[in-house]
């Protein structure tokens, strides 16, 4: 017998069910984004401009650590949605158990390797004598707590995929709210500097992890975490990784790009240019996190209906999310172009850093209206299990198009060339996404027509 959640996936008005699932996701990601923003504001205002630059140096490492969460969490969530669409609860619970063990193993190996070679890694990523102490002090604490972050992210995604968007939102809000409370206490009250910010992050994510893990141990949960399934199953692991490889690759590519960007920024603009890039990244993420929240909401709807063969609802959900994402990115571009000082002054009072940041923001957001389409398109392919196409789109913006721009454009335009490389890559990534999505929609239409023909024959 179908549950109310499953019936809603198949019959409820698209706009209503999208917002029912997306709004909690958006609130959760926005709160998390604001926590990151406010944390960086505390660092910039309370520790100094060089601390902002030091924090920017940590971005590649943080991207790598979050990629572990995306590899398992995104892949497992998509597989759970498809399995539930096929009414295969057993496989969904096996995915839960495999995800837990895989997350712990990957974090143990990765964190150990990074901590052993942390200082030379940070040097290679662009840290100078002035910024290294800040980056090192922050990461040595945050990395130790990364397993909490990964488990929170992974099981939060699976919580949403199994029909609990509001509880998933609460999970993210627990971590963000506690971090907002603890950060100023540790930074100013205990005078712990950037280390205090790191401890606030770790403690907050631990509390979020407790909440989300408790959900899957309750008897009334649609799918439960059972000890007999906490063992590695090759078939399930490969099915998780095949889909999770797309967001994982995107994060790894983002890490590589950040390293290249930081080292090139040092060459053309110095430590403050790295700090400006950190602020610009934060500004962009404030808007892109909204789209990621939207994708988190639409993923179970698309995955379930694709698994159930309801291709018309798959297309309707996609089109609606594309429209919402475009409105968000157009708004972000307008704010960034006309009011860049709003963002820059929030992070620093350093006049030189303000000037570099304001100019960089204006250029970087100029093609932002196209980014929403690309992100939603990539998430769509991930939701229906087309891992290769999702992977291609994920890599295109960060790796295929942006890296050549970072290498070539500064030779002709100096520091501005690095900012210009960002919108140029956005344009090319949009064109590629448009081509792939148009082709896939034709395939879906053919599948839908085949289903209708089969019904008529019966």
Summarize the structure.
This protein has 458 residues and is mostly helical. The protein contains 19 helices and no strands. The chain is 86% helix and 0% strand.
* Beta-strand share of residues: under 5%
Low-confidence stretches: none
For the largest beta-sheet, the strand count, sense and barrel status come to: none
Beta strand count: 0
Overall geometry comes to globular
Number of domains: 1
Cα(first) to Cα(last) distance is: 24 Å
What structural category arises from helix and sheet content? Answer: mainly alpha
Indicate the mean pLDDT. 80
Put simply, the count of helices is 19
Bin the helical content: over 70%
Rg: 22 Å
Element string (H = helix, E = strand): HHHHHHHHHHHHHHHHHHH
Written overview of the protein:
With 458 residues, the chain is mainly α. It has one domain. Helix content is 86%, strand content 0%. The chain has 19 helices and no strands. The protein has helices at 4-11, 14-46, 49-85, 89-116, 118-124, 132-142, 146-161, 165-189, 193-215, 234-269, 271-308, 311-338, 340-347, 351-364, 371-383, 387-400, 402-408, 410-413, 415-457. Helix 6 (132-142) runs parallel beside helix 9 and helix 10 (234-269) packs antiparallel against helix 11. It starts with a helix and ends with a helix.
